[in-house]
């Protein structure tokens, strides 16, 4: 809807609710959303006013709107970010969480040029380093203590507490050199002062994944949890696996954060087989990961499904789980009077080959296919991202590369 256009009621017909934690589960129904964006009726074969826009869900699933807990969307303010529209509603995602693209020095621009105009709800982890990801990995944001300004971080949070949901620290030697785990400790101190969680990226040591876990507490997030990097994989060190399992049971949230270098099918499959599931599934989408190998959230969800994560847990990991981290209310999302925030999607048979960050290939026999993102009275047509370089062709028995 463009500005000036009159909002109209929206009828979501023939949809099957799931993941609402209410009694309405798994029965096809209609949902009527008023022109004000709030749910006005729920039930089979609803009558709707004459000017209603009708969307036929064709028996597909409807869940709370998907949340991607780790993306990079400070487009124009960093060299690595994509636009919110490239990974948001058009991919079935209604809430995007930027993972530290902006630091205190440039958060005001991120708010004004990206957060405020976006159709999607945007929240952010504030980078501990003042400059954020301006020139990502070329000008690292955490080289030494001169890159952190505690007073300005506190000020920035005070001015932006409705947008900032936590502190982000990238703890790997590409960024911190040999500074080790100290920035993680400083990040934890600030997060404690502000009473918000910290998200830590684990990668090439130092810091060691083990050391990071020892610093994190309940509510904090470790992203790239199932990475396959030497010295940072939970499957090459039994002590680290046991530590990750214990921390997860105590409330540390394991987040996928697929990205260009940080998701391994082998690690994920082995961890899930041993009962260690990720808390949240996120993409770490940015300019260097979107076209290869990540594509989008739906494909990332399909990858987790392919390595043994149950369907309902996968949906939970993009709805209630990330919502808990950012304190987004998911109660009674499917009730009259609530603002509409949904994803309509199908689970379809497939023979798509997908690649992880280590170059390993897996066949996805089932694919999450987003159909619509519903934000208030607007239903935005959604689909999975089709990568540019190689062409994915859909045919009667699935997909293939051409
Ligand atoms: Zn990232």
UniProtKB/TrEMBL annotation:
<feature type="modified residue" description="N6-carboxylysine">
    <location>
        <position position="168"/>
    </location>
</feature>
<feature type="binding site">
    <location>
        <position position="72"/>
    </location>
    <ligand>
        <name>Zn(2+) 1</name>
    </ligand>
</feature>
<keyword id="KW-0479">Metal-binding</keyword>
<keyword id="KW-0862">Zinc</keyword>
<dbReference type="Pfam" id="PF01979">
    <property type="entry name" value="Amidohydro_1"/>
</dbReference>
<keyword id="KW-0378">Hydrolase</keyword>
<dbReference type="InterPro" id="IPR011059">
    <property type="entry name" value="Metal-dep_hydrolase_composite"/>
</dbReference>
<dbReference type="InterPro" id="IPR020043">
    <property type="entry name" value="Deacetylase_Atu3266-like"/>
</dbReference>
<feature type="binding site">
    <location>
        <position position="201"/>
    </location>
    <ligand>
        <name>Zn(2+) 2</name>
    </ligand>
</feature>
<feature type="binding site">
    <location>
        <position position="284"/>
    </location>
    <ligand>
        <name>Zn(2+) 1</name>
    </ligand>
</feature>
<dbReference type="GO" id="GO:0016810">
    <property type="term" value="F:hydrolase activity, acting on carbon-nitrogen (but not peptide) bonds"/>
</dbReference>
<feature type="binding site">
    <location>
        <position position="70"/>
    </location>
    <ligand>
        <name>Zn(2+) 1</name>
    </ligand>
</feature>
<feature type="binding site" description="via carbamate group">
    <location>
        <position position="168"/>
    </location>
    <ligand>
        <name>Zn(2+) 2</name>
    </ligand>
</feature>
<feature type="site" description="Transition state stabilizer">
    <location>
        <position position="170"/>
    </location>
</feature>
<dbReference type="GO" id="GO:0046872">
    <property type="term" value="F:metal ion binding"/>
</dbReference>
<feature type="binding site">
    <location>
        <position position="224"/>
    </location>
    <ligand>
        <name>Zn(2+) 2</name>
    </ligand>
</feature>
<dbReference type="InterPro" id="IPR006680">
    <property type="entry name" value="Amidohydro-rel"/>
</dbReference>
<protein>
    <submittedName>
        <fullName>Amidohydrolase/deacetylase family metallohydrolase</fullName>
    </submittedName>
</protein>
<feature type="domain" description="Amidohydrolase-related">
    <location>
        <begin position="62"/>
        <end position="368"/>
    </location>
</feature>
<dbReference type="GO" id="GO:0019213">
    <property type="term" value="F:deacetylase activity"/>
</dbReference>
<feature type="binding site" description="via carbamate group">
    <location>
        <position position="168"/>
    </location>
    <ligand>
        <name>Zn(2+) 1</name>
    </ligand>
</feature>
<comment type="function">
    <text>Esterase that catalyzes the deacetylation of acetyl-(R)-mandelate (in vitro). Can also hydrolyze acetyl glycolate, but with lower efficiency. Has very low N-acetyl-D-amino acid deacetylase activity with N-acetyl-D-serine and N-acetyl-D-threonine (in vitro). Theoretical substrate docking studies suggest that other N-acetylated amino acids may optimally occupy the active site and may in fact be the physiological substrates.</text>
</comment>
<dbReference type="InterPro" id="IPR032466">
    <property type="entry name" value="Metal_Hydrolase"/>
</dbReference>
<comment type="similarity">
    <text>Belongs to the metallo-dependent hydrolases superfamily. Atu3266/EF_0837 deacetylase family.</text>
</comment>
